[in-house]
Specification:
Helix content is about 85%, strand content about 0%. By secondary structure, the chain is mostly helical. It starts with a helix and ends in a 7-residue tail after the last helix. About 20% of the residues are buried.
């Protein structure tokens, strides 16, 4: 008789422990999903900020204000930063490729890119307006570069 009571208590304790563990697991999963969402929002916000910096520097460069090499370098750096944040955003692979291609062209082919900064500005403006055609414009810009050129 005493053995039955001990077994019942152990079984009840095991069930209670299982329920508490399950609730803790559900809470942990919910917190993880929420934090992942917040981190992704931060990455998207930083990505947009870097593209706004690119747009501002393009405006300065195209308005012929100041040191051109300095502003071109800043454009290149901001575009590379945008590519870094694009890498961190989930389900952003195709767009990331386009941003990285533009960044690579800015670094490797500055003479060609300097003649196409107006098109880049339009593409970045459309991307900031969350229009898919901005990425298409950027891709066309990348494809128009002579990759075997200077």
């Amino acid at each position: 008789m005493n053995q039955d009571k001990i077994m019942k208590r152990r079984m009840i304790a095991a069930i209670v422990l299982l329920i508490i563990t399950f609730i803790a697991l559900v809470i942990f999963i919910a917190l993880y999903v929420d934090e992942s969402r917040r981190v992704q929002e931060t990455y998207r916000r930083q990505y947009a900020t870097e593209l706004r910096h690119v747009n501002e520097e393009l405006n300065i460069y195209l308005d012929a204000e100041g040191d051109f090499d300095y502003h071109y370098t800043r454009i290149t750096v901001y575009m590379a930063n945008a590519g870094s944040y694009a890498f961190l955003i989930d389900d952003f692979t195709q767009r990331q490729i386009v941003i990285n291609e533009i960044s690579t062209c800015l670094i490797k082919y500055p003479e060609q890119m300097k003649t196409k900064l107006k098109e880049l500005q339009q593409a970045v403006t459309d991307i900031l307006a969350e229009l898919d055609k901005g990425y298409d414009e950027a891709k066309e810009l990348y494809e128009s570069i002579n990759l075997k050129g200077y």
